[in-house]
Amino acid sequence: MTGARLPQGLLSVHALPADHHDGPWDHILVPDGIKERLLSQALLRLRHGRALRNLPGMPHGLMVLAGPPGTGKTTLARGLAQTAARALAPAGATTYIEIDPHAFPSEMLGQSQRNITTLFTDTLPEFAARRPHTVVLIDEVEAFAVRRSAASFGSNPVDVHRATDAVLAGIDLLAGSHPRTVVLATTNFPEAVDEAFLSRADLVLNLDLPDEATIAAILRRTLAELAGMWEGVRPLVCDDGLHRKLAVRCAGWDGRRIRKLVLAALAQRREVALDPNLLEAADLLTAAEAG
Predict the structure, then answer these.
(1) What is the C-alpha separation between 254 and 87, in angstroms, rounded?
(2) Is residue 2 part of a domain?
(3) Which residues, in sequence order, are CB contacts of 29 under 8 Å at separation 6+?
(4) Is 97 helix (H, G, I), strand (E, B) or coil?
(5) Per the domain annotation, does 1 fall within a domain?
(6) Does 219 lie in the same domain as 175?
């Protein structure tokens, strides 16, 4: 479900698992152990949330993915929702909700607070009651839970404080009333997220830019996908020496930029653009040098 029919602040609502949501979890490449840690944390909350809420230091079901743009935070979060839903499917479906944090700021004093309160006390509980499990994604959460100690942003600082207070109260309320709910939050700027919000997280995972081994793996995967359409690219998929050389030249690049390198290589020469089967190692190296 998407579009104007949704309550304010919701970008989309889906029932998972769904075949058209497959892909992101398998396609994104991150260091070993990260996916397993995320999935285990989500499954623990979604499966045993009711029991866990009786423990001291109640878990909030909040997981924060932090890191520079292009490190795959949003893709990883979306893939996690689908993968967790598949694992839990025998116990029932999962509601997956994406929130637009930029929909809540308002120039009217107190309006942001009221909108966020409505989200957590009415909208999310209503959707969470429909199925046994719920996963909520808040992308760019720094626009939603603003660090109050630095709230000056040219808007009304009192309203910023009240809005963040409403987010914190809402997270607490949702954790207690719907314990089989996981909230995934991503941020490019963890230093801009309120400290109390981060302290409620059951897991804060910092994602770094790809290292050379991961860069080489991303290039290999991208070339393999290209070879599925143009068989002439196949030799480049197996050229580990080329992948290592490109990885050195692409140090410091994010995953999105690395994948686009292959597209840039296809456009280096007119004949390759017309027939990608003609792609050569030199085209990739030239594209990497050009940045």
Answers:
(1) 30
(2) no
(3) 210, 214, 217, 218, 221, 255
(4) strand
(5) no
(6) no
Give me the phi and psi of 182, to 5 degrees please: -115, 130
Residues 57-73 have a mean pLDDT of 92
- What does DSSP say about strands 94-99 and 133-138: parallel, antiparallel, or unpaired? parallel
Q: What percent of the chain has pLDDT over 70?
A: 94
Give the residue ranges of DSSP H helices in 99-154: 111-118, 124-128
List strands edge to edge, sheet with 133-138: 10-16, 94-99, 133-138, 181-187, 62-66, 203-206
Tell me: cis bond preceding 125? Omega within 30 of 0 counts.
no
Asked if the structure places residue 65 within a domain, the reply is yes
End position of a domain, from candidates 147, 181, 206: 206
Sign of the dihedral through C-alpha 120, 126, 127, 133: positive
The one-letter code for the residue type at 69 is P
Which residue in the block uniquely carries the two structure tokens 């999935």? Answer: 39
Contact 192, 146 (CB under 8 A): yes
Residue range 70-127, pLDDT digits in tens: 899 999 999 999 999 999 999 999 999 999 988 876 554 467 888 899 999 999 999 9
CATH at 127: 3.40.50.300
